[in-house]
Write a structure and sequence with these properties.
Elements: H1 2-26, H2 35-54, H3 61-92, H4 96-103, H5 107-117, H6 124-147, H7 154-158, H8 161-174, H9 181-191, H10 194-206, H11 211-215, H12 220-242, H13 251-262, H14 268-276, H15 281-309
Helix pairs in contact: 1-5, 1-10, 1-15, 2-8, 2-9, 2-10, 2-14, 3-6, 3-13, 4-12, 5-6, 5-13, 6-13, 10-14, 10-15, 12-15, 14-15
Length: 310
């Protein structure tokens, strides 16, 4: 129940930020296209800082085991998401944005604050396994899909700032290198902007279209169902069959950390990427808003099932 209440409170806070983004456009202070500047800041500044900060932790055997476990579980979950999307793509006629929306979740913006308030800050690092696996796929698979490329551009991948940040963060962790306290504080402050910035972008995106269209477009609810209900429940079934909670000590708590990351709404960074690649920002913003709103109900329900069966 504590997780459910804290989750609802966190989502409510983020929705107030979304409303701010909506209002600055509706009252004429900004135009929807002005959000592109925020998108660049989000993708090329906030996300790398979040990655670097995540691995500024003590490198102990227990932490290494937990991180390795979280990476394995995160890999299994993403492979399942990709497989389900490939299977459903043609029957459901999923477009580019819908396919990305059902695969990529808003793990960092919602899960990190929630974990800090419930399980404790020591569990936050285990969500980073999921976040980093997702970031690698975001800047390889997702970019390729949004650009409409037939293949992966290795040069763009290798030179991508976010992937460079992942490599740098992993090296610092592996070599037991701790950055100066002042620098860590600065990086942490910038990285923590990911949730508010994502909601501002979503609010600015939907401000250009009537709210009636957002709520009364039946097609949007297909993505909502897939992202918030079908994918989480299929994932839970697979993890139950694999008895994943028994693989390591404290497995259930760490597994819940990773699982929670995979049942969140549509990834906030997707809005930025959609805009950078000149895709339909209105559709992306609508899916982000609807999944975030309805996750107030779905996430506590799915976690309740997790606690019963695992």
């Amino acid at each position: 129940m504590a997780i459910s209440i804290l989750l609802a409170e966190k989502i409510a806070q983020l929705f107030l930020i979304l409303l701010m983004g909506y209002l600055v456009v509706r009252v004429g202070l900004l135009k929807p296209e002005d959000s592109r500047v925020l998108s660049v800041i989000m993708v090329y500044l906030v996300m790398p800082c979040m990655i670097l900060n995540a691995f500024q932790i003590d490198n102990t055997p227990e932490v290494r085991t937990g991180i390795a476990y979280s990476f394995v579980v995160a890999g299994i979950m993403h492979l399942l998401f990709l497989a389900l999307t490939a299977l459903l793509k043609k029957p459901l006629k999923l477009d580019v944005i819908e396919r990305c929306a059902v695969i990529y979740s808003n793990a960092s913006a919602l899960v990190i604050p929630l974990l800090q308030a419930t399980l404790g800050s020591e569990y936050v690092v285990y969500s980073c396994g999921f976040i980093i696996v997702q970031l690698v796929l975001l800047w390889t698979h997702c970019c390729t899909v949004l650009r409409g490329d037939k293949g992966i551009d290795l040069k763009k991948i290798v030179t991508n700032l976010n992937l460079i940040a992942i490599v740098a963060a992993a090296l610092l962790f592996a070599l037991h290198i701790t950055l100066p306290a002042g620098l860590v504080t600065t990086i942490s402050s910038v990285g923590n902007m990911i949730g508010p910035l994502g909601m501002l972008l979503a609010g600015m995106a939907i401000a250009s279209s009537p709210l009636k269209k957002l709520v009364l477009t039946p097609r949007y609810y297909l993505t909502v169902f897939l992202r918030l209900i079908l994918y989480p429940m299929v994932t839970l079934g697979l993890l139950w069959l694999l008895k994943a909670q028994t693989w390591i000590p404290d497995g259930k708590a760490i597994l819940m950390t990773v699982f929670l990351s995979g049942i969140t709404p549509v990834c906030s960074a997707l809005n930025s990427m959609v805009q950078l690649y000149d895709r339909d920002m209105e559709e992306s913003g609508a899916l982000y808003v609807l999944t975030t709103l309805l996750s107030i109900v779905t996430m506590p329900m799915v976690i309740a099932v997790f606690e019963q069966v695992m």
